[in-house]
Amino acid sequence: MGFFLEVLIGGLMTGMLYSLVALGFVLIFKASGVFNFAQGAMVLFAALAMARFSEWIPGWLGIANPVVANILAFIIAAFIMFLVAWLIERLVLRHLVNQEGATLLMATLGIAYFIDGLGQTVFGSDIYKIDVGMPKEPVMVLQDVFAGGLLINKEDFIAALVAALLVAALALFFQKTSTGRALRAVADDHQAAQSIGIPLNRIWVIVWTVAGIVALVAGIIWGSKMGVQFSLVTVALRALPVVILGGLTSVPGAIIGGLIIGVGEKMSEVYLGPLVGGGIEIWFAYMLALVFLLFRPQGLFGEKIIDRV
Amino acid sequence: MIYRENGQFKTSYAADQQIFPILQDRWAILGILVFAFVAVPLLADEYLFRAILIPFLILSLAALGVNLLVGYCGQITLGAGAFMAVGAYAAYNFFVRVDDMPLLAALLLGGATSAAVGVVFGVPSLRVRGLYLAVATLAAQFFWDWAFLRIKWFTNDSSSGSVSVSNLSAFGWDLESPTDVYLFCLLILVVFALLAKNMTRGAIGRQWMAIRDMDVAAEVIGIRPMYAKLSAFAVSSFFLGVAGGLWGFVHLGAWEPAAFSLDRSFQLLFMVIIGGLGSIMGSFFGAAFIVILPIFLNQMLPWLGDLVGVSISTAGVSHAEIMIFGALIVFFLIVEPHGIARLWSTAKEKLRLWPFPH
Amino acid sequence: MARQIGEVILDLQNVSLSFGGVNALIDISFDVREHEVRAIIGPNGAGKSSMLNVINGVYRPQAGEIILRGEHFRQMNPYKAASAGIARTFQNIALFKGMSVLDNIMTGRSLKMKANIFQQAFRTGVAKREELEHRAKVEEIIDFLEIQHIRKTPVGRLPYGLQKRVDLARALAMEPQILLLDEPMAGMNIEEKQDMSRFILDVNDQMGTTIVLIEHDMGVVMDISDRVVVLDYGKKIGDGSPDEVRGNPEVISAYLGASH
């Protein structure tokens, strides 16, 4: 029982991180109808920026305090993500308005390649560290309830907490602020939103920037767990089934989908993996999403698609 | 000879429905075939065969397969590499497990296996489309990546999925020198390209394109979406499977699952976007472009770097390469969504009117 | 060949359709007789297109029955409807925009082409012969609708009026027994409307095709249809000959109320 709970909690915590990356997808899809395949590249790019600036800043400015260096690096990285968003809008999205979803998807694949290459050209392609002071050691909890207690990874726990906070903040942002309302209006109907004076281009820049900052946070968390390296890109590939499961247009869907995939992955790896040679978690998540698609093509919380002729 | 169709009147529908209705095109294609079959083997050296020509031929075949599915039937796939893998490993199994299995038969059986697998992974296309389908095809990619790495039976109990074949021959023709391999691949490609052309200009091709352009209307005029989509998946996977078999058997000789990774899938998708979605010719253009560009950049960038006094490392070149790929994809999608093939046909259009454009 | 209006060929009984609580069609019954021109009219949002979509199975009604030549269906599906000889055109032209006019019309022959995929891939005698036979048939339709000059043009490049004609040609290529036309003259000028009316009557007259037609232009409807059914807010409010419908007070008020 204790072991099962450990696996479950581990799954939920990883799931929360998937939710965070999935949220990036959902935000962009809602506001611009683009399925942003470059989300993974953005995570890597943001993490690289963060890692390298926090490394360079002490030398440049003579600041020894790592907290100040990290904060400065975060601000710079966030600004860089804004620049990326702005450039993507100017150079790509603007020219592809009203194109089909598949075309936009392929365009974001191109963007992903470009950002991957650019990030490694500018920031280098070794493995870098991000140290924001996340505790590494695991702790035992609930020793009274279970024999031996539950072993919880503190780092994962904090990461999950940060992710949850960010998700909640974004949900509030969407619901309560006027920019959030404009975003939702754009999501519902581009042309109608434009006709009542909502500037489409600016909204897109905002959304991509927000998605960029979500990517930055995700990059910092993943980066401090496993180092900043090219394989961060695959984190986004792992978050894709989450979006499919939860529905492309639903914020709660991204969260619950993330948790389901997180738990499903861990469970399958622990209980099913040994039977078939291990390493199954990535395709297991996809298969889960795929089977789900067959029964509910719009995802858990997505809007039903009605064909009009 | 001036490029004109004036005076070439068609007196029957049969004449009008030829692959190349214009006389000059027929001569041109004949010229290209003669050049490819006769002149190239005489002129090319081993490097040209191994680094450019053979990869170009095999990847053209794979790009054709992707184009049939994505360009003609409108079903986006990010799992093309997986079907190459299925074809390669299935052909391998037929080849090593069945005594006296001829090479060509093993390759075709590999293709057939890949087609069957393609149909299974095409089933989601009946329920979902576009973005969702793209993700569904990724499932195929990750599943087969894993399966060939971990399931020992598929790889005849070799470790980490690496297998090799040797002493290849077809119909008593030993495929040893690069020239032989080149001719073998060329022969297969020509036959498959003809089959692809026949399908796309026939009833099945029209059904695929109808599904691509407007699936509801297609069903209303009596096209079964299930048949059209699954047949596109099957044919596409067959092409990919054979290409995968060739890639493993005659190009690499020894390979592991990484030869058919997600990057391969993206590469194939890029070929058809840059070459031209929905164009047989475009598949060749795209494959040529993507095979040659890295080689070109590898020579070009360090030279350019030297010119301005910067030395560009190998890693730098490879990063520049993926940036250029990415930028080109976006460029083509924005400026010329029909790819090089459309540029080509526009040029022909101009030539037809030259020298009096008005 | 003088046309002779025959028996009831298509009969809809108590059809109701709703989308997530919104009623598009409420308990609608009407029949269509063989060889007649049957019009469906009504203000915008009355449910006319939904009616056609129910007949050829794009939408599945929640209640009611569709009786086609004596055979009962709870609901149709588009492929079944097409096999049963029902063709249609679309309000917002639904041509295959990446294909030429000729190829678009050839797709209408899909049900009748039997060569399998291998015969097509190798272009065997069977496949080649079939392609030529159907091309000849399609050329007849091209001649009939007077669109010879654009046969090789990609449909995307055609003006609206011609696209509508290609849409009709594609439907005719199916050699349907029942042809559903969804606002075939919307957005056309007088001349184009006259051409289209002539084509519709010729189809009805020469091929004996039964026609079910949605149209906004009252003049055209009254001129060419044999019987008219009137919908308003998903309900049937009138049914009969053009003259009967014209005199129906409910119909008049629906139209005046909707300021047409």
Account of the protein in words:
- The complex is a heterotrimer of chains A (about 300), B (about 350) and C (about 260).
- Chain A is mainly alpha-helical.
- Chain A has one domain (about 1-295).
- Chain A contains 11 helices and 2 strands; from the N terminus they run ααααββααααααα.
- Chain A has a two-stranded antiparallel ribbon with strand order 1-2.
- In chain A, helix 1 (about 1-30) packs parallel to helix 5 and helix 9 (about 235-245) runs parallel beside helix 11 (about 280-295).
- Chain A starts with a helix and ends in a 14-residue tail after the last helix.
- With about 350 residues, chain B is mostly helical.
- Chain B has a domain at about 20-260.
- Chain B has helices spanning about 15, 25-45, 45-70, 80-95, 105-120, 130-150, 180-200, 205-215, 215-220, 225-250, 260-275, 280-310, 315-335, 340-355, and strands spanning about 165, 170, 175, 255.
- In chain B, helix 3 (about 45-70) runs antiparallel to helix 10 and helix 4 crosses helix 10 (about 225-250).
- In chain C, the strands form 2 sheets. Chain C has a 6-stranded mixed sheet, with helices on both faces. A 4-stranded antiparallel sheet of chain C has the order 2-1-4-5, with helices on one face.
- Chain C is globular.
- Chain C is an alpha/beta fold.
- Chain C has helices at about 50-55, 80-85, 100-105, 115-120, 125-145, 160-170, 190-205, 220-225, 240-245, 250-255; strands at about 10-20, 20-35, 35-40, 65-70, 70-75, 85-90, 180, 210-215, 225-230, 235-240.
- Chains in contact: A-B, A-C, B-C.
- At the A-B interface, helix 4, helix 9 and helix 11 of A face helix 6, helix 9, helix 11 and helix 13 of B.
Q: Name the helicity range of chain B.
A: over 70%
Number of strands of chain A: 2
Radius of gyration of chain B: 21 Å
Quickly count the helices of chain B: 14
For the biggest β-sheet of chain B, the strand order reads: 1-4
Low-confidence residue ranges of chain B: none
* Structural class by sheet pairing and helices of chain B: mainly alpha
Give the % helix of chain A: over 70%
Strand order of the largest sheet of chain A: 1-2
Strand content of chain A: under 5%
**How far apart are the first and last residues' alpha carbons of chain B, in Å?**
21 Å
Mean pLDDT of chain B: 88
Major sheet characteristics of chain A: 2 strands, antiparallel
Low-confidence stretches of chain A: none
Mean pLDDT of chain A: 82
- Global geometry of chain A: globular
Largest interface: A-B, 48 and 46 residues
Number of helices of chain A: 11
The rounded Rg of chain A comes to: 20 Å
Given helix and strand content, the structural type of chain A is mainly alpha
User: How many strand segments of chain B?
Assistant: 4
